Amino acid sequence: MNLEEDNRRKRAKENLSKTESLQFFILPFITPRARPKSTDDFSQSQLERFKNYGYDTKLKQANQLIIYGIIFWIGLVLIITYLTTKYL
Fold it and tell me: In b/e form, how buried is each residue of 28-65, taking b as 16+ CB within 10 angstroms?
């Protein structure tokens, strides 16, 4: 085995850092998956980089966090809407 193959295996199994996770969870609406026309270059470049360089686990986790983030924000809006209509 050479160094390149070892690095490729490590990249495939590497997890998202806490900062990367928060970026995909807290701001899911500025990622390419949330809108047909994305203007956010950072998120798109991150997902493309994960795909191009073989970060399989990171790509999978990022896509899951985008979905969880969207569900979180929709739920939060529904709860706030319910509380404001009930108590105002």
Answer: bebbbbbeeeeeeeebeebbeebeeebbeebbebbeeb
Alpha helices in the chain (DSSP H): 3-13, 18-26, 41-52, 56-87
pTM of the predicted protein model: 0.76
DSSP 8-state code for residue 16:
P
By the 8 A CB rule, do 28 and 73 touch?
yes
Q: What is the pLDDT of residues 37-51, one digit of tens each?
A: 555 556 777 888 889
> Do 11 and 52 touch, CB atoms closer than 8 A?
no
Calculate the alpha carbon distances from 88 to 14, 73, 79 in Å: 48, 22, 14
